[in-house]
Design brief:
2 domains; 12 helices; Arc Repressor Mutant, subunit A; about 290 residues; two-stranded antiparallel ribbon; 3-stranded antiparallel beta sheet
């Protein structure tokens, strides 16, 4: 465990800065500009999916909240912003009804393109979102929806509520076991006592959040918690595996620790923001 002892207390405990975008319109403009440059179609449902992925995977804080709706993750605030932009003739929404599903295709008007050109904040927003946009650039609206359903364990129309709740509860139990095993491993590890306390306390907190991600709360909210908690626990298991090898992995271990600090900081912020849990870690949350 010498390699873990090499990590400073600050590396294990200090909250990294979470990126933040305060401008709902800027977020929409940024996506439309990106897609327009590639001559690619944008549907309203994609805007909601990119929003939840920016939050849940890239840990970029947006001035909106998400919940489960007809086609997966949905934000009332983003929906209202799209309506405002349409009313102001900045975007055009082509509402296409195919019976089994509806498709709202969004395009920038001439005025909208002028607005984006003169908005100096868009480049800064683009910088924060480019990785996300490029990562999912080839996804259609339906493939993005399917990805979100799988990533956040959402119930689709073909699943019964009984089966979905059973699957969600099984995932919670699975992660609880992984978390308890990790706490046991670090409790018995030959590492500095203060670092041991920090790691085990944080794992215990994450375990509490996992237990609160019950099917009775919003599917998207609980899904985001479980998705991030699973990544957090997986990272600690990776660290344990790297420590057991004979290779010099200090740099890799430090990188994973930093990644976990970001996930932990996000989980702490998210749990408080959505009223899931208030903890002793709240004072450490830092958002930029």
């Amino acid at each position: 465990m010498d390699r873990l002892n090499a990590a400073t207390t600050s590396e294990l405990f200090d909250e990294p800065i979470l990126n933040k975008i305060n401008d709902r319109r800027g977020f929409i403009f940024s996506l439309l500009k990106f897609k327009d440059a590639l001559n690619k179609e944008v549907c309203s449902s994609q805007i909601h999916k990119y929003g939840i992925l920016a939050l849940a995977e890239k840990h970029i804080i947006l001035p909106v909240k998400f919940k489960k709706w007809h086609y997966g993750p949905f934000s009332v605030e983003l929906d209202k912003e799209l309506t405002n932009l349409e009313n102001q003739k900045i975007i055009n929404i082509d509402r296409q009804d195919y019976g089994l599903y509806k498709k709202h295709v969004i395009t920038l008007t001439t005025q909208g393109k002028r607005e984006i050109k003169k908005d100096k904040s868009i480049e800064k927003i683009n910088h924060k979102l480019n990785t996300l946009f490029n990562e999912y650039n080839d996804n259609t609206a339906s493939s993005l929806r399917n990805y979100c359903y799988n990533a956040f364990l959402l119930k689709n129309k073909n699943r019964s509520s009984v089966d979905w709740k059973s699957e969600r509860k099984a995932k919670i139990r699975e992660l609880n076991v992984v978390c308890i095993d990790l706490i046991h491993s670090f409790s018995n590890a030959l590492i500095n006592e203060n670092k041991k306390i920090i790691i085990c306390t944080q794992l215990d907190y994450v375990n509490t959040l996992i237990s609160k991600a019950i099917p009775e709360i919003d599917e998207v909210v609980s899904g985001v918690i479980l998705n991030n908690a699973e990544s957090y626990l997986s990272n600690w298991n990776r660290i344990l595996m790297l420590i057991d090898t004979n290779q010099q992995n200090n740099r890799i271990i430090r990188k994973i620790i930093l990644e976990n600090r970001k996930i932990f900081g996000f989980l702490n912020y998210f749990a408080k923001e959505y009223g899931i849990y208030f903890s002793v870690f709240d004072e450490n949350a830092i958002i930029n």
